[in-house]
Amino acid sequence: MTESGRREFLATATMLGATAAVATAARAQRFGNPDSPPQGAVNAADNPGTTNTVVGPQNPALADQFPSAISPPPTDVDALPMFWASFNNAHKRIQNGGWARQVSKKDFAIAESIAGVNMHLSAGGIRELHWHQTAEWSIMTRGRCRITTLDAQGRPRVEDVEAGDLWYFPAGLPHSLQGLGPQGCEFVLAFDDGSQSENNTLLLTEMMAHFPPEVIGKNFGVAADAFQNIPLHPRWIFQGKEPGDLAADREASGVAQGGEPVIFRMSRSQPVKQTAGGVIRIADSTNFPISKTIAAAMVTVKPGALREIHWHPNADEWQYWMQGQGRMTVFDTGPKATTMDFHPGDIGYVKKSLPHYIENTGHEDLVFFELFRTDRYEEVSLSNWLTHLPPALVAEHLNIDVATIARFPKGGPGVVPV
């Protein structure tokens, strides 16, 4: 080949290579940017005059928690209402015997169906006798707790619960909670009304202080003076003596056989979905009959694995993130698509029927709860839907071949392995 021929060949090859690179970049950009104007930092990659770094006032510790908000994927478009909240920055109410912090609709506008409370009780610490106008669901996250309640037929229950156990108290039924040794307990409560507040409950002490003494005496058949030392202010959480033997407390309370169980050993229950990527356990009215207004899923996702793209057709989803870290993208009409990052103690919320996924972005198992104000858990899996259609119909929609569709996971795996 002559020198001029070689130069012509190299020039042609360079031009073809550049053309191919431009075409590849354009294709990648079209795949990652379905909107006009295109979204994401990729669009400014070749512009030296543009920076995606925040140079003004900022809180680096906070910003580092939300990489997907600082630099969203190019598929994000038009922000959804904020669906992230956290117990980590919720005000903590502390008393001798324990503390509580809460996130309700007042703090988290999107969360219309469920409000959440994170509470700790010391060994012997008592959440005083009380009841709510809403139902109460709870997951124990640490330690041990003794619970008491009375059902609508007048049947008492006294139970000990530990990490991984649930309880459910229907609206209006009285109950108490008390931490057991050696470390007390911590748990997360959920109410089936986003406006419910832990500070707005019906307390035994407040009620007794606001009825005439002679009425109280007449009610119990004793002299009114017997109540002269009752607390004039609510106790809410206070330090008491650690309870003794469970069997003795049951006998003293008149516990007998019968009535619906108010606790469910969720961490010991059989998974409804299990793959190499993770596990899903369900607690709803089908296996925990008393839980008629809250259904729950406990989800474990291995590092790098994906809680598959899905949606829930019967209720909004309230999430409590217990362990690990991950990111979630939620899609809505508009189109709108927003990605946020989550860590332990955070709360997520997804409106009914909106598709979303959750990806484990950390190096340990991701564990979180999904809660729904309904009596049963329902889910639509994207892969399960697309694998139960005529393959040619799906191929025409997505411009992919039938052989690719045949490799889609069938049956809705729940959690997709790496």
The H-level CATH homologous superfamily of the largest domain, spelled out, is Jelly Rolls
CATH topology of the largest domain: Jelly Rolls
Strand percent estimate: 25-35%
Structural class: alpha+beta
Gross morphology is: elongated
| Backbone CA Rg | 28 Å
Low-confidence stretches: 1-29
CATH architecture call of the largest domain: Sandwich
Q: What is the terminal-to-terminal distance?
A: 50 Å
Tally of alpha and pi helices? 9
Q: Let me know the number of strands.
A: 25
Helices and strands, with pairings:
Blueprint lengths: L2 H30 L27 H4 L3 H4 L13 E3 L5 E4 L2 E6 L11 E7 L3 E7 L4 E15 L5 E7 L3 E4 L5 E5 L5 E7 L10 E2 H6 L3 H8 L16 E3 L6 H8 L9 E2 L8 E3 L2 E6 L11 E7 L4 E6 L5 E7 L2 E7 L3 E7 L3 E5 L5 E5 L5 E7 L7 E2 H5 L4 H8 L3 H4 L9 E2 L2
Antiparallel strand pairs: 1-21, 2-3, 3-4, 4-10, 5-9, 5-11, 5-12, 6-7, 6-8, 6-9, 6-10, 8-13, 14-15, 15-16, 16-23, 17-22, 17-24, 17-25, 18-21, 18-23, 19-20, 19-22
Structure description:
With 418 residues, the protein is an alpha+beta fold. It folds into two domains: 90-264, Jelly Rolls; 266-416, Jelly Rolls (Sandwich), CATH 2.60.120. Helix content is 18%, strand content 33%. It is elongated.
Question: Tags for this entry?
Answer:
418 residues; Jelly Rolls; twelve-stranded antiparallel beta sheet; seven-stranded antiparallel beta sheet; 9 helices; 25 strands; elongated
Overview in brief:
The protein has 418 residues and is α+β, with helices and mostly antiparallel strands. The protein is 18% helix and 33% strand.
